[in-house]
Amino acid sequence: MKISEYFPIWEQLTPAQQQRLEQAARYSRAEKGAILHNGSADCLGLLLVCSGQLRGYILSSEGREITLYRLFERDMCLFSASCMLQSIQFDIQIQVEKDAEFWVIPPDVYKTLMEESAAVANYTNELMSTRFSEVMWLMEQVMWRSFDKRLADFLIQESVLEGTTHLEMTHEKIANHMGTAREVVTRMLRYFQQEGLVSLSRGAVDLVDLPALKQRSEA
Amino acid sequence: MKISEYFPIWEQLTPAQQQRLEQAARYSRAEKGAILHNGSADCLGLLLVCSGQLRGYILSSEGREITLYRLFERDMCLFSASCMLQSIQFDIQIQVEKDAEFWVIPPDVYKTLMEESAAVANYTNELMSTRFSEVMWLMEQVMWRSFDKRLADFLIQESVLEGTTHLEMTHEKIANHMGTAREVVTRMLRYFQQEGLVSLSRGAVDLVDLPALKQRSEA
């Protein structure tokens, strides 16, 4: 694995910058469930994903969670290096959802690149805009979309990500993705089951009528 | 009014860039209530506030609003030039809250500056991080400060059940009904009292403004 094949604007770096990045980045791996970055408790560095799946989420003081975004192959995560940007005043957690391999770019190395190179700084801007857009989408969902539509949407998205209509997820885990309480999820899933959209079993949800679920998510 | 006195990183621009900015920026004013920027309907340019007060907000398809941030003297607004950043996928409205004077910097002029100057690009990054942080704060409020709505709802339901606005209930009992801690209830009830929604006495809660409570429960 070479970082030159994964770093998004490699060809816009000078040879000296490329060399610095190659030397500083460490290749790493982590298993499903691992917490890579824990809010303001650390400043790990930028993550550049090679394989697997990560999720970024926030945590309430009561331990509730909501998933903000997912990271896949070739995605880069800024917020695991938020110490790099003075104006970032929020804490994000990064967890491994599927066994992952990734590069970790030390924050000081990336910060120097940004200061030297308008291309790197502008790329960083686009990256932040992408995450900002994801959070704004979520904000609008949470503010203005009823929970049944959000849940239908979430189940469909999960089924796309997992490549199956048999989702092995507890109600608790769904609640953590969606920023709500387990009981709220359980109540709505039971309603979905009555409506013939899903079938529930221990620790799993089967999507038995995808077209109807889709219709509900768009209603 | 000279833009050189307001533009945040003026001294980091080259003389040629300074001249370009001076020639391109127009000084403008608008009265309270004016909509300066309407989502994706326009790409006005960056706003650099000289005086007055602006607010950035989003709008639901049903016309509901939520204020995301306020802009005051010397604040700069990126999102009125969101066409400049490809990855911005959301629409923000900008409204004048107090009569305002401001510069408008054309998006193409600013974009060129960002491409040429790492300093401008990095400043833009910090600006975006600031707004992002404001939105994240709001998100956490919306997600996790919903207890006030639950409590308002609970009090109304109890009053319907009891047929009176004088509820003889301890904070402990309310907490037990709602699955939360007594202190959380006490804190919120005291806040409600300050807001003139309820009046507290030993072992009792009087609902003194039902319409306002109802409004809060539905907010």
The SSE order of chain A reads: HEEEEEEHHHEHHEEH
CATH class of the largest domain in chain A: Mainly Beta
Helix content of chain A: 40-55%
Which stretches of chain A are low in confidence, meaning pLDDT under 50 for 5 or more residues running? Answer: none
Oligomer: homodimer
Helix vs. strand class of chain A: alpha+beta
CATH architecture of the largest domain in chain A: Sandwich
Kindly estimate the percentage of residues of chain A that lie in beta strands according to DSSP.
25-35%
**So what's the overall shape of chain A?**
elongated
What is the rounded distance between the termini of chain A? 45 Å
Q: Kindly state the mean pLDDT of chain A as a whole number?
A: 93
CATH fold type of the largest domain in chain A: Jelly Rolls
- Please name the fourth-level CATH homologous superfamily of the largest domain in chain A: Jelly Rolls
Whole-number count of domains of chain A: 2
Query: So how many helices of chain A?
Result: 7
Gyration radius over CA of chain A: 19 Å
* Largest interface, Cβ cutoff 8 Å: A-B, 40 and 39 residues
Q: Compute the number of strand runs of chain A.
A: 9
Profile the largest sheet of chain A: 6 strands, antiparallel
